[in-house]
Design a protein that fits this description.
Elements: H1 2-25, E1 28-30, E2 51-53, H2 55-71
Antiparallel strand pairs: 1-2
The structure holds zinc ion.
């Protein structure tokens, strides 16, 4: 089990960095709730835009705001 755990520990930062890069490259994902039917004006999840910010991007915005408020 030792080598497997070491491999996982090594993979985790790589996956995390990859996901962060992915979020930075395209911070907006498609809305899962109204996407099969295209844009839905009454969709409350995306305000009718058909696009939603990724969870990683939301975390980044949140962390950035915390940092800005903390350093002011
Ligand atoms: Zn939607």
């Amino acid at each position: 089990m030792g080598p497997l755990i070491a491999l996982l520990v090594l993979c985790l930062p790589a996956v995390t960095l990859g996901y962060i890069g992915f979020c930075l490259a395209s911070p907006w994902g498609t809305c899962k709730r109204c996407r099969p039917g295209g844009k839905n004006r009454t969709c409350r999840a995306c305000d009718g835009t058909g696009m939603r910010p990724r969870i990683g991007w939301q975390l980044y915005v949140y962390a950035r705001r915390l940092h800005r408020d903390g350093t002011r």
